[in-house]
Amino acid sequence: MAAPAAPAARTSLRRNTLSVATSVAMCMAFMGPATSVAFNTAPAAGGAGKALPFALLLALVACLLVANTIAAFARKLPSAGFAYTYNTHAFGPAGGFLSGWLLLISYGMVGPMLFSAIGAFGSDFVAAQFGVHIAWEFISLFFVLVVWAISASGISESARVALVFLVIEVGVVLGLATTILGSGGDHGVSFAVFNPANSLQGISGIGIGMLWGILMFIGFESVATLGEEARSARRTVPLALFTAVIVIGAFYVYTAFASANGFAGGSAFAGDANPWSTLAQKFWGGTAILILTVMASQFANVISGSNAIVRVIFAMGRESILPRALGRTGSRQTPVVALTTYMIFSAVFALLVGLKYGPYGVYGFAGTVLGLGMVFIYIVISIGVIRFYLREHRDEFSLLRHGILPVLTALIMVLPVYGQLHPAPAYPNNLAIWLLLAWMVVGVGYLVYLRSRRPHVVSAMGAAFGDAPEPAADATPAGAVRADPVR
Fold first, then answer.
1. pLDDT-derived band of residue 99, with 50, 70 and 90 as boundaries?
2. % of the chain beyond a pLDDT of 90
3. I need a surface site. Which of 162, 312, 319, 423 has the fewest CB within 10 A?
4. For residue 321, which of 140, 134, 124, 97 has the smallest C-alpha distance?
């Protein structure tokens, strides 16, 4: 007699949990707007100078194009698997597996990157304000435990916490930006910063500014990993995508407008290694509030980012690509096994790499891996959406939305890849591309193994989950609704 099927609650996430607002909050928090502004303004201004606001406008347009691609998939394939599920249906099991494999290492860097950064910021802040030294490692481990506890409580709790800290970080940075503009900037407020002619390095400088601008948006796509938990996911996910990109994009452009006007000239702006600290000191008389705001941003970022990667791990575990235990949920229908495994990995990676390169070294290396990996994924899914609609939804294929715009997206995304590789970044960040290549070689080997030893696993890849209510316990787990067989 066949063993009874596992109860649905053991392999399914809690359905109909997230609204459009909470879904938007999660992906906005993943973008880490205050952290992005604090860390990315300097290298972006190094190329674009006072034309940075114009460069960020172009980055906003580019990310709206990516959102169009993801939304086209999300309307048909609401799933926690994101690119893994999408590209399985676009390119077949091999393409889906390799996309999921790349997503694992890319999103996997979020935890180590942010736990090390928040530990370093926390240690520096306590030392500066109170004269007490607390090793960054202890602060990082404390936040690992806090994030685990919040995430294990459920996606709704994670979304609420992320929303609170998101409001704080956006509010403080907007307050400083408004103070700068309200004070007339350094020598008056000028809209000439939207003129590309003010780029320090011409068109190349605009490209550099756009590169760093696109990297500031990374994380908005994470709402696609919430497809099984969002209410009316086929509508919620696309709406949340465009809302997040437009709102945070406007935030980036506004803050760039303020920061460019806060400096006397383009050279001074481009030459400042930490322009927002300079502006906080100049217009607010201190940097303590800004430091705390960046920490709040990192906290919200790591909560949202960890939830995203955990759901990808969960989806691949549920389909036996990764160990099946990772695809199980706890009593609250949260992927607690995948969550615990990922928190342990994040802590170990941050501490071990931090011993050699320091916490900011972890941040830089992990961030480079994340940025490169995600841009590659943007390119692949942009090509994939064309093939997906032609293969499975030809009657709905739109030449503009499913053809021209995705091709344009893929071409635009070549820019940040080039910008991150040429000139080569400093050691150890220059090793990021080699790590990605080695990881993908291992992935190809694992795929060959799966095809030869466990072909049934390969043929079952890429389940999509519909909007129907939860099934009975003895039904197909999680209410899986297969699209046309993956070819």
1. very high
2. 65
3. 423
4. 97
Give this prediction's pTM. 0.85
Lowest mean pLDDT among 12-26, 57-71, 164-178, 395-409: 12-26
47 lies in some domain:
yes
What six digits make up the tokens of 467? 């909007």
Show Cβ contacts of residue 201 under 8 Å, excluding neighbours closer than 6 positions: 47, 48, 49, 208
User: In sequence order, what DSSP letters do the residues of 334-384 get, joined into one string?
Assistant: --HHHHHHHHHHHHHHHHHHHHHHHHHHHHHHHHHHHHHHHHHHHHHHHHH
pLDDT at 224: 83
Q: Which of 164, 165, 137, 161 is nearest to 149 (CA)?
A: 161
Q: Is 362's pLDDT higher than 80?
A: yes
Mean pLDDT of 255-262: 96
- The CA distance from 212 to 36, in Å, is 9
Cα 221–chain centre separation: 6
Host domain of residue 42:
16-461
- Mean pLDDT (whole number) for 237-259: 95
Which residue carries 């941040």 as its tokens? 363
Cα–chain-centroid distance for residue 112?
14
Burial 197-230 (b: 16+ CB within 10 A, else e): ebbbbeeebbbbbbbbbbbbbbbbbbbbbbbbbb
**Hunting for tokens 């920490």 — which residue is that?**
295
Q: Which CATH number covers residue 287?
A: 1.20.1740.10
With a cut of 80, say whether residue 76 has pLDDT above it. Answer: yes
Give the pLDDT score at 201.
Answer: 82
What value does the mean pLDDT take over residues 73-81?
A: 84
| pLDDT at residue 2 in the model | 46
The pair of structure tokens assigned to 13 is: 């996430």
- Dmax (CA) for the chain in angstroms is 82
What are the φ/ψ torsions at residue 230 (nearest 5 degrees)? -85, 145
pLDDT at 9: 44
Whether 483 is covered by a domain: the verdict is no
Residue 84 lies in a domain: yes
**Is 270 among the domain residues?**
yes
Q: What residues have CB less than 8 Å from 181, skipping those under 6 apart?
A: 189, 257, 258, 261
CA angle 46, 47, 49 (to 5 degrees): 75
Average pLDDT, the chain: 88
Q: Please give the tally of structural domains in the chain.
A: 1
Q: Which of 211, 201, 213 lies closest to 267, judged by CA?
A: 201
